[in-house]
Amino acid sequence: MTPQQVVEAHGVRLRPFRAGDAADVVDGCADPVSQRFVSSLPSPYTEVDARWWIDAGAPAVWTGGGAAYAIADPATDRLLGAVGLSCPLPERGQAEIGYWVRPAARGRGVAAAATRALSEHAFATGTARLELLTHPENAASQRVALAAGFRYEGSRRSAGSGRDAGRHDLLAWVRLADDPPGPTARLLPDLPDGMLTDQVVTLRRLAPGDAELMYRLHSRPEVVANQAPPVPPTWEAIERRCLLAESGWLTGDIARLLITDAATGEPAGSCGLSYTDVGRGEASIGYALLPDWRGRGYATRAVRLLAPWAFGSAGMARLTAGTVPDNIASHRVLERAGFHREALQRASLPGLTGTRLDDLTFALLPADLR
């Protein structure tokens, strides 16, 4: 690749940076979102930094075997963002792709279009494998990766560094030259209109603002007693669970949901769904309610809402739920939702101080739905 090449595809233009781009580079790089997730950017980011990038930084990327493109609007040629290739490994035919977009251009598919355009250009000029690394909390960037045809490959522990000199994980998304075109299919698709509801109960994706409620719910003694091992969670673990809830959906790891009253929006509890065997289409479901909402059928309604979505949009073939044998209330919830008792697995779960707990398993098939 050479910096003289201009790439036009998918509704965007990739071109070299120009002196007139400086103000728009500042607009994009000084933005709080860019500053948070691109820790290599100077802070504060000024016009001096933008001019250095245009005059020296971007040319140095090209000299080093990478690519540094301005993303421009084909109609006006105004800068919308940037996309580039770094960390080239010619012997492996591999590079890392990254991008940022000005605030006013976000939400229009600009980053995904530019990533697709540069990926295809890179593959056409000899690259075999592209990596895209995202912060675990940067769900917007993860959606870009999926829209551009990248597949989640795993977590790189402590591979990223923050402005406070701390370390954090990075999620690795990969696209190969012979991968099929188009967006990557997800194991856990979004809920229709962002929710499931029967007009009495509503399920929505867990969000960062739900941490206090989730901590209050999951640290209750009776909730702790029915999990394995029966150890109360820390505040930090619950906060992280909420911060990474959307990422869990996008990577296909787990769908975490809040159960709310449909009329008032008041939180009633939580539920979750995660694959236990992707190849067999099998997933596990769990739930918990705050005391004021128990005995009113909310847990049963939540399961009845979640199961058809799992069998339909998510394409699962079988749902299971594990319970401790004396959790009679949970058994009744599952049976009312159509689950069947299948097996008692003795000493299957970890308990406290080296003890083991039995696991009573229930299962639901599409034909069992009530």
From TrEMBL:
Gene3D superfamilies referenced in this protein's UniProt entry, alphabetically: 3.40.630.30
Superkingdom: Bacteria
CDD domains: NAT_SF
InterPro entries found in the cross-reference section: Acyl_CoA_acyltransferase (IPR016181), GNAT_dom (IPR000182), Ribosomal_N-acetyltransferase (IPR051908)
Residue ranges constituting the N-acetyltransferase domain according to the UniProt record: 12-177, 201-367
Name of the protein in question: GNAT family N-acetyltransferase
Organism in which the protein naturally occurs: Micromonospora parastrephiae
Phylogenetic placement of the source organism: Bacteria, Bacillati, Actinomycetota, Actinomycetes, Micromonosporales
